[in-house]
Amino acid sequence: MSEARKKPVSPVAARMLGKDDEARERVLGHIHELGLDSNLLELETQGFTIVKGALSEDHVERARAAILRRVERRKGAPVDPAAAGPKDFNGMAYQHYLIFDDPVFPEILLEARTLALVTYLLGESCVLSSMGSHFRGPGGFPLPVHADGVHVGMSETSLVANCNYALTSYSPEAGGLVLFPGSHLKQRQPTAHENWMVGHETFPEVMTKGLEPEEIDQLEWTMPRGAVTPALEPGDAVIWHGNSWHGGWRRDIPGTRINLAAYFCRPHLATQERRGDNRYPEVFERYKDEPRFARLMGEKIYNGWRDEGPDFTGRKDSPSGYFD
After folding, report:
1. Residue 184 CA, distance from chain mean position
2. I need a surface site. Which of 6, 11, 55, 318 has the fewest CB within 10 A?
3. Which CATH class is domain 38-296?
4. Residue 99 contacts residue 47 (beta carbons within 8 Å)
5. Which pLDDT belongs to residue 151?
C-alpha cells in the first residue's frame, strides 16, 4: 500500500464521503413512505405537482386570519375577504416576511409532504428564501408569466423551488395560478409574446401606457398558449421546479384571493429574506428538537464567516451533491 493510501482521512473528508448517496436514499425513501411517488413523477415530467389537502383546516384558517391581520394593519382599514371590491383592495400586493408573524407559519414550513418534495428538488440542506402572501383583490394586472430561476445560469438542476399553498379557492375568475407543463425543460424565461397580451400588445407595451386603475381593470387579457389553471381548494399546495413558468389571472369577482408562498433555495444562493434574525429566540427554542427548522432558517450554512474563520466542527456544513 502506498504512503498516500495510508494517510488518515480528515474529519471533514470523512463526513463528505458517501454523504450525497446516503441523502439520496433518505430523500427518496421518505417520499415513498409518504405516498408521493406519483407527485415525484409529475415534478420530473411537468415541472410541478399538486398535493391535495396539504394543510389541515386549522392551518388554513389560522394562516388566512394572520395574513388578513397583516393586510389590514398595513392598509389601515378592514378588508372583507368575501366581498371586497376594487375600491377596497385593488390588484395584488405582496405581504412579506411572514415567518415570525404567527406561530402557524413555522408549523406550515415543516409540513411533511410538501417539504419532502421541496427537499427532492433542492436537497436536505435547502434554506427558506422567503415566506409571504400574494394577496389579491379584484382588478389590476395579471401576474406576468416568469420562472423563479435566475435569467443567467439555468440548469437541469433546480436551484430554487416554490411551494404555493391555496388558502382560498383558485379559479381563473378568482385570480388563480397559471402553470406551463414541461416548461422547466426550456431552461429560459418566457418571451414577451409567450406572456399575457391585450390583443396584439405585449405586457411591457401595456405597462408603458401609464393607464389609470379604472382603465387597467377594463383590459381583456389573453391567457398565454400552453398554460393550464388548476382548480385548487383551500389547503391544496402546488410545488414547482425553479425553472417552471407560472403566472396568475387577474381577479374578476368580489373578495380576495389569499395564498401562502414558501420559496426555497440551495444554501449557496442569497435568500430573498435575510436569515440569521435573532430577534425571535422563543421561536427557535420552540423548535429546538426539530433540527430541520434551524437548517431551513439558515442556521447551518457553512459559508459566511468573519474573523472567527470557518467552522470545522460539523455544526455547520456544506452539501456535497444533489440530495444532501
Report:
1. 15
2. 6
3. mainly beta
4. no
5. 73
Cell digits for 205? 407595451
CA 259 – CA 244 distance, rounded (Å): 19
In this predicted model, what pLDDT tens digit does every residue of 8-61 receive, in sequence order?
555 555 566 789 999 999 999 999 999 999 999 999 999 999 999 999 999 999
In tens, the pLDDT along 196-209 reads 999 999 999 999 99
User: For residues 233 and 98, what is the distance between their CA atoms, to the nearest angstrom?
Assistant: 22
- Say what the pTM is: 0.93
CA 41 to each of CA 32, 120, 141, 176: distance values in angstroms, whole numbers, following the listed order: 12, 11, 33, 24
Tell me the three cell numbers of residue 215: 382603465
Question: Which residues of 96-251 form beta strands (DSSP E)?
Answer: 127-136, 143-147, 160-166, 177-179, 197-198, 201-202, 237-241, 245-248
